[in-house]
Amino acid sequence: MKRVFYCLILTAAASFVLSSCGDAQTTMLNQYRLHINFKDVAGNDLVASLGEEYYISESWRTKWVNEINPDKYSLDIILSDGVNATKPYYTLAKYNDDHSWLIPEVNGRYDGDGTWYLESNFVLLKKGLQTTLTYRLSCPTIFGDDTVHEIVAWWEDGTLISDKCRIPTCIKVVYDGMEIQPIFGISYNDQSDPCYSAYFLDIVLDR
């Protein structure tokens, strides 16, 4: 399964880093999982049209792989020390009401009702735990214009996938000055294994 395979890739990458550096804090691989949905006041899913486009960047691909058309949004992620992350991006996925991941069809598309989320599985190597990450997002499809909106997330030590890989805990989120409670969910099917956990934001826009 793709998420199990992804965890194995992350652990292997962390093993490589540890072989060249002895500082466990700075060589820990941290994966900051924060998934976001936006709805209008009528309850319409504002992320859905991005997902239902099923954008494929490479003509040779035979299935959709959770991509978003890069012309339709911009994203910056700023680390705790003020440094901009290199080439951050969102992916898309569809979830049930309990925030469990819907299994896509063979072609990568989703069959059935659910809510679309912008997924950020942001991974950092060679840096210690980031106590804050600031996400600056612009997306006319969601917001109705090209204004940049700011999401600040606070993090602390979380679940260890292994002695080399950690999923930090999101303890607080502020969106454009408004505090929003992050929801802890198991993002892969209905499994209880914290390896598959993520934090979800359900934001209602005044539009």
Provide structural commentary:
The chain is 14% helix and 37% strand. With 207 residues, the protein is mainly β. The chain has one domain (2-204). Strands 1, 2, 3, 4, 5, 6, 7, 8, 9 and 10 form a ten-stranded mixed beta sheet that branches. A hairpin with a 4-residue loop joins strand 6 and strand 7. It is globular, with a radius of gyration of 17 Å. Residues 1-22 have low confidence and may be disordered.
Summarize the structure.
The protein has 4 helices and 10 strands; from the N terminus they run ααβαββββαβββββ. The chain is mainly beta.
Keywords:
single chain; 207 residues; mainly beta; 10-stranded mixed beta sheet; 4 helices; globular
Category by helix and strand content = mainly beta
Shape: globular
The biggest sheet amounts to:
10 strands, mixed
What's the alpha carbon Rg, rounded to whole Å?
17 Å
Query: Helix count?
Result: 4
Q: What's the end-to-end separation, in Å?
A: 38 Å
Beta-strand fraction estimate: 35-45%
Write down how many β-strands occur, each being a DSSP E stretch of 2 or more residues.
10
Domain module tally: 1
Residue share in helix: 10-25%
Q: What letter string, H or E per element, gives the SSE order? A: HHEHEEEEHEEEEE
> Average pLDDT value?
84
Q: Identify low-pLDDT runs.
A: 1-22
